[in-house]
Amino acid sequence: MGIWLADFWSALPWRESGLALTWVVTSCLIIVGLVGCLIPILPGHVILLLAAVIHRWMLGEASGLRWWSFVVLVLLLIASQAFEFFSGAAGTKWFGGSKWGAWGALIGGIVGMFFFPFGLILGPLIGALVFEKLLAKKENTPALVSGVGSVLGTVAGMIVKFAVGLVMAGWILIDALDWI
Q: Are 18 and 58 in contact, with CB atoms under 8 Å apart?
C-alpha cells in the first residue's frame, strides 16, 4: 500500500508544486500547534507532532525528518503534558499548601478546563482554596496563599508548555531543512 501511495504522489500533475504545498500545510499546522500551546482547547503539541507526521508522509524520504525526530517530539509532548498537568498542584505545595490543597488544585484545574478562559486560572485557585478550607481545616490566609501558589504553578505550566511547543516547532523545521 505504501508503494502505491508513493507512486500515486509522484504521478500527480502538480508534483513540482507539491513541495510548496507540503510546506504550506506544515507551516499552517505549526502555527495552529503553537496557538494550541497557549489555548488549552486545541491540543497544541499533538498538532505539532501531526505537522511532522504529515510533512514526512507528503514528502517521504525527501522530507528530511528522521525517525529519531519523532521519538524526540513524542518525548517532548509527554514531558510537557505531565508538567502542565501537575504544575498547579506543585505550586500549591511550593507555597506551603497541604496534600489536600494540591489535590484541590489538580481537580480544580481539570474542571477549570471546561470553563475556558477564566477556568484555567480560577479552577486551580478555587480547588486549592476549597480543599484547604474544608479538608485541611486551614484558616483563610494560609488557604488563600495555597490557592495563589496553585495559580502561579498553573501559569508556570502554561509558560513551559509554550516553550516546549517552540522547541518542537524549531526541531521540526531544523530537521526538515537538514540543519542538524
A: yes
- DSSP per position, 77-94: HHHHHHHHHHHHHHHHHH
* Cβ atoms < 10 Å from Cβ of 169: 21
Q: How many Å is the Cα radius of gyration of the chain?
A: 21
Per-residue pLDDT of 83-133, as tens digits, reads 887 887 788 788 887 888 888 888 888 888 788 778 878 888 888 888 888
CB 36 within 8 A of CB 47: yes
Running DSSP on this structure, what letter comes out for residue 136? S
Q: Specify the pTM.
A: 0.74
Residue 166 has a pLDDT of 95
Domain residue limits, the chain: 24-180
